[in-house]
Amino acid sequence: MTVIATDLDRTLLPDGGEEYDGTLPVFKKIIKKQKWDLIYITGRTIKQIKKAIYKYNVPWPDYILTNVGSRVYGFDKKNKKFKLDKKWFKVIRKNSPEWNKKKIKKYLKGISGLWLQEKKRQDKFKISYYVDLSLEKNVLKKVNKNLKEFGGIKIIYSVDYPKPRGLLDIMTKKGTKKGALDYILKKNNKKIKEVLYCGDSGNDLSLLASKYDSVVVANAPENVKKQAKKQKPDKTRLYIAKKQKYLNGNYVSGIIQGLVYFKMIDKKTVSGLIKKYRKKENKFRE
Fold this sequence. Notes:
The protein has helices spanning 24-34, 46-56, 87-95, 101-108, 136-146, 177-187, 205-208, 222-231, 252-261, 267-285; strands at 3-6, 37-41, 63-66, 71-76, 81-84, 114-116, 126-131, 153-160, 165-172, 195-199, 213-216, 238-240. It has 286 residues and is of the alpha/beta class. It has an 8-stranded mixed β-sheet with strand order 5-4-3-2-1-10-11-12, with helices on both faces.
């Protein structure tokens, strides 16, 4: 396995309300030593991603798939610059010639409990809404009904934390997190067995339940864990993180557990790195 692809918020980044065990530096050490390709797949924009990389001091990736997969960027590590892959737009358009943002918005207008997200969260091949959680069931039912006649679209729903709110993305079937990852891997001649995907929410399910080896971090909602289990064709290729002696399984800690489970790194090496880091951390505190 040579590719680590991961969601950012509440997966790699400890930005939720659950306990963080301080293992980001350990993950960073592992990535640096192993020299795996690293891909971030997120709903964030490039500007937000840059802020997060500096704030949490996470490794710079080889690729970033932003706006839930509707945009693909390569990364020049030497100059620390992102380059938009415009060919991805052509691939999406070719596979979804019927995509019509104006018409889709018209069909969803007036649904109580559904409203458009900020302009900066919209994109060429993505329409994003907020959902009132108290009206969630009714909203989703109406959205599916109103968009029934549209071919080539994907409706992705998830709940954002730590302040719970519904997030609804209307996308092309190709221009999703999974579609974008498939595109990058094909472009780089990578095979399915070379990839590990890590996530925590509803918009990760297409990848968590795919043929890729995948990890659901411990802090993921229970319904996401259940859906991933239910939808995964080969259950041995899915790992759901949990509390362990040295790793509590939340956020990046769950990713590290997954690396051990899929034999990308041995348990002894990981426990050694953790002990070394915590000894150093305790010495610093003293």
